[in-house]
Every structure is written in C-alpha cells, then in structure tokens.
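Quarterly update, task 2.4: zinc ion-bound model.
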Amino acid sequence: MQDHARRIRLRRMIYQVIRKTKTPLRLSDIIDKLATLFRNDKYLVETLLPELVSSEWESIFGSNLVKNTYTALRYMVLREFTTGIRRRMLEMGGWVLERLLGSGDGGYRGASIGCECGGTARFVGYREKAIRTALGGMKVWRAYYHCSVCGRGRIPQDERWDVVGTKFSPGGRRLMNRMGGKESFREGREDLQEVAGIEVGTKAVERMAEAVGEAIRGVEEERGERIWSGKVGPCCAPAAEKIVYIAVDGTGVPVVGRETEGHPGKGEDGRVRPRG
Ligand SMILES: [Zn+2]
C-alpha cells in the first residue's frame, strides 16, 4: 500500500476511535486504543506498518513488535494531528488574506488608463481570478481594462501583485521553483504539499521550473554574448585579479524519463537512470 493510502486508512481509524469514545481523549489514549487494534490484528501491521516486520527494521530497532508498533503509531498519530492543525491554520490564514485582498478597489484606476502601445485602455468591468498562494487557493476580483488600438487587456492589480499571466502568487512560485529545481518534479510536488501545504499537479511544477529555466537561459545567453563581443569590463576595481580560475562541475544532471529515450544507459538493463 502506498504511503498516501496508508495515511488515509490510519486517519480513518483515528477518526473512528474518537467517534466511538464519548469523553475527551488525550493523544496517548488514541495511540493506546490504536495499539490495541494493531495487537489484535496482525494483518493491520502487515498492511499499514510493513516496515516493522522487515529484517532491516528489526536489525535497527529490535524484534519487540509490540513496542515497535507503539513507537510507529505515536509517530504517525502525531504527524496526522500536526499536519491537520497546520492545514486548518493555513485555511484560516487564507480566509483572512482573501478578505484583505478583496477589500480594496480591485485596482480600479478610473474610466481609462494608458496602454503600452500609446493608446488608451478603457475600463470594461471586474474579472474574477483564482490565485494559489502559500496560504492556499483564493479568488479575487480585479478591474479589467481593454485597449481598442492594440486589442490587449490590462489588469493593474495583477501587475501590482506580480501575477500577470499566472495563477500562482510570487511566494507560491518561489517555493515551486526551489523544490522543482532541486529534485524530480513529482518529489517537488510531494514536498510542496508536505512542507508548505500547497497542492499542485506535477505538471504545474514542471511548467514553472521550465519557465524559470528559460528566463535564466535568456539572461545567461545575453551575458555570454556580451562576454564574447568584449563588452564586459572588470567587474569591481581597476586592480582586478590577473589570474582567474574557472571550474566546471558536471557529474550529474537530474532528468526525466522522456529525455533519456534512445540513449543507452550504464545500468545492467541498459536503461538510463533518472539521475544519470
Ligand atoms: Zn494598446
């Protein structure tokens, strides 16, 4: 059973334990009741805590299954309550933020504003937008302007909040980029949910990382052209260093499966490992 499915099953068991008891429960009471259920049903341990019956686990924590089950349950119950409370707090914060963001004029700047083309963009009405932030998803209304000269729309509030052409807030985007750039997109998505409580699809992480990669490449290429054309001078002081060392570290590049198609790998099965 996948870790996610195990968590949902355990969450349901915790809920049933709480529901069956009429009096307030301490966390240790919940763990005790769950431990009794696990003690009486070997199948539960094998399904929900399979690592406890592995030889690897036994070599580290010993073979006392009752004690190990209790330790594992304590960890899992605490994890469920911690993440549950955090989720509720984030939801509350998101609720407050949504009202704060929606309390203004939606970026209304009068009947018309200037357009980049030099024409005039006229106020059309208010448009709704769903934004994903570090506090969860929320909806905001913004004033929409349209320029009849170039046919483009302008939303001053999106420009002010740096969310033009994206439904992710700057903070949400930064988190996605940090996690999507360090590991596989799937792991990035899982970490986003675990660490920041942001639920997005793997594709969204991939798209965001690629968009930032493109932007970085643009800056690097522009810098490279300046270097090759001799337009880059000493960066700091006139007495710049006479010797400059350049080091290149190219031991491994994280890649996704479809990028290795047609390339033989070093593994016994001839496949390229995700981190070749
Ligand atoms: Zn225009």
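Highlight for this quarter: Strands lie at 112-114, 120-133, 136-147, 153-154.
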